[in-house]
């Protein structure tokens, strides 16, 4: 089954078309202030250059966060617009954290992702070495006591909040201090979902513990 995946939830832009066997087309780029422009330029390029016919897609994915709310909303709105045009097309979300972990080299250690949220807060989630989540995504306040479902002496940290969390926990661990999802990580995450018949509702992952205000009609009014 052919699929298209869009990710503009963190620090770079990713778009890929592929199937369970291979990647057919991919583009990755550094994001500028206009997250929508690079997405629509790439979609138009694929169509104008006849690289792939969108009516041959079986499902289309968007990362749902946590991450940049504007980018997440744009990509989710885009896959919903595809659904309006190609009514037989299925749509699904993808965990930005799962794709981020799979974008790094494999490790025998557990992994904790720490992504900066509003000032003083971090989005976090822990995974084992087999990419199995050990807890749900949550928002942690750096002023409060923090307890992770893993030993603080034997894990690695990923994300731009890694340094802050390591300092809070007073631990010296391997850190990957960036929020870069790669094409390979995104592809691996989607293939895992397909192989496990996993589906994620394509709505933004919004966590209420911070002082961020949720945009009105986020789930029901895509911006197309």
CATH topology (level 3) name of the largest domain? Nucleotidyltransferase, domain 5
Helical element count? 5
- Widest beta sheet: strand line-up: 3-2-1-4-5
CATH class annotation of the largest domain: Alpha Beta
Count of all domains: 2
Helix content: 25-40%
Rg over C-alpha atoms, rounded to the nearest angstrom: 17 Å
Q: Which structural category fits the helices and strands?
A: alpha/beta
Write the layout of secondary structure elements.
Blueprint: E1 3-7, E2 12-18, E3 23-30, H1 35-48, E4 59-63, H2 69-85, E5 90-94, H3 96-102, E6 110-116, E7 121-127, E8 138-141, E9 155-158, H4 162-169, E10 174-176, H5 183-195
Parallel strand pairs: 1-4, 4-5, 6-9, 9-10
Antiparallel strand pairs: 1-2, 2-3, 6-7, 7-8
Helix pairs in contact: 3-5
Task: Report on the architecture of this protein.
The protein folds into two domains: 110 residues, 2-Layer Sandwich (Nucleotidyltransferase, domain 5); 73 residues, ATPase, nucleotide binding domain (Nucleotidyltransferase, domain 5, 2-Layer Sandwich), CATH 3.30.420. It is of the alpha/beta class. The strands form two sheets. A five-stranded mixed β-sheet has the order 3-2-1-4-5, sandwiched between helices. Helices cover 26% and strands 25% of the residues. A hairpin with a 4-residue loop joins β1 and β2. α3 crosses α5. It contains five helices and ten strands; from the N terminus they run βββαβαβαββββαβα. The C terminus is likely disordered.
Keywords:
224 residues, alpha/beta, Nucleotidyltransferase, domain 5, five-stranded mixed β-sheet, 10 strands, 25% strand, elongated
